[in-house]
Design goal:
The chain is of the alpha/beta class. The chain folds into two domains: about 110 residues, no CATH class; about 190 residues, von Willebrand factor, type A domain (Rossmann fold, 3-Layer(aba) Sandwich), CATH 3.40.50. The chain contains ten helices and eleven strands. The protein has a six-stranded mixed β-sheet with strand order 7-6-3-8-9-10, sandwiched between helices. A three-stranded antiparallel β-sheet has the order 1-2-11. A hairpin with a 3-residue loop joins strand 6 and strand 7. It is rod-shaped, with a radius of gyration of 38 Å.
Length: about 325
């Protein structure tokens, strides 16, 4: 009984009315017919003098009051409280920026002891990460000479892993448009209360040489919006944290190490599959899911159908007996 709970307990205030109804109906059992009222029919004379079936008539008078009591009990919505339910974790927006330029096809990495292309290893490592992050919204952007959205942020992590497999080297050109990729990602994510959107940039050299938006402009916008960018350099020599200049953009441009530090992210150099796994595990630890306080809700089993069904059966019985009496 300690687990019994009433969702609408004020309906129980009507129970005394059930007692009043029962008292009035029982009191009417002993009422006599008014004097002078005589039913004259030769065939019914014996029935008039026969003793009534006291038990049945008493039960018929009690049934409506019991039906009303069951209906009031159902309106009060009895419930059985179960254990506490842990609320699902609150995820964040994570967009992976995937370099698909020609240099990502170099097979200078290993997977299960066999040579593997840079892009192939990135896709496998990140697919495992996405599947394990239930609650996050994952988006995928591929970039080469231009940037394109393979999948906008979605809670369907399995679909994100499948879509990641469709990224092919050279599909968007042979150059590198990092600024366009960051700018496109920033249009798809928005800061959340208590959760910082995250961009994960995969590239090999990290030097942008194409696109309408320069890396410096894109990084400045990301910093203004409070979006962190984690950069993972796959192969080549690690970034030094110095600016570079290219004819495509005016002014110095940040390399992958500077992109991460400027936006509050972290730079990772991953020249092997093991290093890539270590990098994504660290990113996962730095961007944990937010779990709300435990014990906010309890499992509830509604019990009102039982008294409601009993009330219906009693009313039906009462209606049938009254019809037979008529």
């Amino acid at each position: 009984m300690s687990s019994l709970h009433w969702a609408q307990p004020w309906w129980l205030a009507l129970l005394p009315l059930c007692g009043v109804l029962l008292w009035r109906r029982l009191r009417g059992d002993g009422a006599k017919a008014p004097p002078g009222l005589v039913l004259r029919h030769p065939n019914l004379y014996g029935l008039l003098s026969a003793p009534p079936v006291a038990g049945f008539h008493l039960w018929r008078r009690v049934v409506p009051a019991l039906a009303l009591a069951c209906a009031v009990t159902a309106l009060a919505q009895p419930q059985r409280l179960g254990g506490w339910i842990d609320a699902p974790p609150q995820g964040r927006n994570i967009v992976v920026l995937l370099d698909t330029s020609q240099t990502m096809s170099l097979e200078d990495m290993a997977w299960n002891g066999k040579p593997a292309a840079r892009l192939a290893v990135v896709k496998r490592v990140f697919a495992d990460f996405a599947k394990a992050r239930a609650g996050d919204r994952f988006g995928i952007i591929a970039f080469g000479s231009s940037a394109a959205t393979l999948m906008p942020p979605s809670f369907d992590n399995a679909a994100a892993a499948r879509m990641l497999e469709r990224a092919q080297v050279g599909g968007l050109g042979d150059n590198t448009a990092i600024g366009d990729a960051i700018g496109l990602a920033l249009r798809q994510v928005a800061p959340q209360s208590g959760l910082t959107p995250v961009l994960i940039l995969y590239s090999d050299n990290g030097a942008s040489n194409a696109g309408e938006i320069s890396p410096a402009q894109a990084v400045a916008l990301a910093r203004h919006l409070g979006v962190k960018i984690y950069t993972v350099q796959v192969g080549d020599d690690p970034a030094t944290g110095e600016t570079y200049t290219v004819p495509a953009y005016p002014g110095p441009q940040p390399d992958m190490r500077l992109i991460a530090s400027t936006t509050g992210g972290k730079f990772f150099y991953a020249a092997s599959s093991d290093a890539e796994f270590a990098a994504i595990r660290t990113i996962g630890a730095l961007t944990p899911l937010v779990r709300p306080p435990e014990g906010r809700h309890r499992a509830i089993t509604p019990l009102y159908p039982w008294p409601l069904a009993l009330a219906c059966l009693l009313w039906l019985f009462s209606a049938i007996t009254l019809e037979d009496r008529a």
